[in-house]
Specification:
globular, 58% helix, three-stranded antiparallel beta sheet, alpha+beta
């Protein structure tokens, strides 16, 4: 086993420990702390590996960047775009670039193997939580009392006139809006945790546990920039994607109440073992 694989395995074992701890608590604040802790651990490991690669680049062959296909769901399934949104949000916080299949059935991840493995571990846990949280929201019936704006076209005096009306929120619309907001909030939380770790590693922080070393900070900043450039170059040489994925563009409309509920669920989501993952990837019910 290579040293890179060994580091990746140790990292995933540590993250797995956080998952089990998170699963054992019902305290929302503790759950949020576990999510941030997992992302900080992933970022610190990524920084350490980036610095190590920079120091050994001239002496030995560094770990190679890879492309890996990540399955999302079967063709024709509803809601796959929200699943993709969740994976892409996680990837953005872990130095992984993504291409998305037109059918949203799979994502092509570009990055170092350890970073992609972290993304898959986080996604497996958070996908189950997102689906279950949206199930609870729909079963509660709260969406039935909500309304949303819809643009309708009418013919008046031989002319087509568009106007905005308020309509009830369908179950599938509420579910999609809930999951989109959940994924967006997860992305924000992970990005904040990553930013905090990188800032502490590259700037003087009086609250840091370790004494500040200007040389080490400079080396870290240089390594992170080198990793960013290397990944961008690899992606541009390897990707065959045409255009850029801009996220789900649902024709079902914007449901404010469902978005707010999804955002709240994303704020308190915790990392837990990805049990029953296959069931979570099933068709999106009405």
């Amino acid at each position: 086993m290579s040293s890179s694989n060994a580091v990746s395995d140790r990292l995933l074992i540590k993250i797995g420990g956080l998952l089990r701890k998170a699963e054992s608590t019902d305290n929302e604040h503790e759950s949020e702390a576990f999510l941030a802790a997992a992302q900080r651990l992933a970022t610190r490991s990524s920084i350490d590996l980036a610095v190590a690669r920079a120091h050994t680049r001239d002496r030995e062959r560094p770990p190679a960047l890879i492309q890996r296909m990540v399955p999302i769901g079967e063709p024709g399934r509803k809601g796959l775009r929200t699943y993709v949104q969740l994976f892409v949000a996680i990837a953005a916080a872990n130095d992984v670039r993504c291409d998305v299949a037109r059918s949203s059935t799979q994502v092509y991840a570009y990055g170092f193997a350890a970073d992609i493995a972290v993304c898959e571990a986080l996604y497996s846990s958070l996908l189950v939580q997102m689906v279950r949280a949206s199930d609870r929201y729909i079963k509660s019936g709260d969406h039935r009392s909500a309304t949303m704006e819809k643009v309708v076209t009418e013919r008046r005096a031989g002319r087509r006139v568009r106007r905005v009306v308020r309509v009830p929120v369908a179950g599938v619309t509420a579910r999609l809006n809930f999951q989109l907001a959940f994924a967006e909030r997860i992305g924000i939380r992970l990005a904040e945790a990553k930013s905090a770790v990188e800032r502490a590693a590259t700037t003087r922080d009086t609250a840091a546990a370790e004494p500040f070393s200007p040389r080490r900070a400079a080396d870290t900043a240089l390594a992170l920039r080198g990793k960013e450039v290397e990944l961008a170059d690899f992606y541009s040489r390897t990707s065959e994607a045409r255009g850029t994925w801009h996220g789900p563009r649902s024709s079902t409309g914007y449901a404010p109440a469902a978005r707010q509920a999804g955002d709240r669920a994303g704020q308190v989501a915790r990392l837990g073992p990805a049990r029953e993952l296959d069931g979570a990837r099933g068709q999106l019910p009405e």
